[in-house]
Amino acid sequence: MINTLRKLLSIIKKSFKVIYAYILYYTGISNYYLLKRLNNKAVVLTYHRVLPYEKRIESYSHEAIMVDPIRFDMQLKALKECFRIVDINEFSDLVHSGIVEGPPACLITFDDGWADNYNYALPILKRHQCPAIVFVPTDYISSPLTFWQETLGQQIAKIYESGTSDAKELITKYGFPDTLSGNDITKNIIIRDYVRSLKTLPYNKIDMMMTDLTKFHGMNGASKVDRHLTWDELKELHKSGVAVGSHACTHRILTRLTQDVVETELVESKNTLERKLGESIEAIAYPNGDYNDRLGDLTKKAGYSLGFGTHYGYVSGTDNLYDIKRINMNDNTASSKPVLLATILGIM
Ligand SMILES: [Zn+2]
Q: In terms of pTM, does the model score above 0.85?
């Protein structure tokens, strides 16, 4: 009962925000504030996956990192009307020179190196002639494995399907949701929300759980939809004008690792990308956006000139260029042009 009320309140709150976003847009207020707030500043947007709705039933990635291709197309059109879309080199020049002049600049970034960036995002980026940069975790490129979140989601779904006493034991042992009710889409959402709630669990506990579940299923692969780019696809993206940056090697949160391991993640991912793509890699996006000053120092020492985090905000030339702010994009934060602008303004 309390949960239903909570959900209802959240829907009402969201609806009011959307109405507010439309009022701001059609009265010209959002455009006015955009120019005022972004004066001498740039905005960096974070995308992850560009995947059609009908494919998502096979995916265990959370909705918060998804954009439908039709919506992505609408977003690029809207962004081009309000911003100057810059590539990573122009962005770097702007922020390093300390001045961000002219119409507000916008850099489009993708994290995680999902194969859908090649299949769905690239044709749309090309059609709009929009530059972008994709940050890839090198260990997952051309690998049959994916992140523990997607793997775990798939394994939990199979546990419920199996219904054996061993499966029930695992459900109790790890505190998985008691029952999965509703249709396949609802069940999938319950699993993805549950997996997302484990994000801060220590790595040794996650490893233990994964080992147990892999033993139960005898498999550790990912759903076909939750696949990362191959090296050929990444090279093709790169040839088509999409820049490439590092997202470390293993996608582990760097602030949780020892200094030696962090140095290896930073240096090896950079070296691998430089060797494969034949050009210098200057930018990194930290997995999960987690940052501290030690990480900033080590990133600089490893030879990067830009480090991207996930704190909300705009970028000015005087900011810490090893913890660059970004704004997350998904289906809900940018469902229409008025909502997209309201998200960038920090209203949604
Ligand atoms: Zn990531």
A: yes
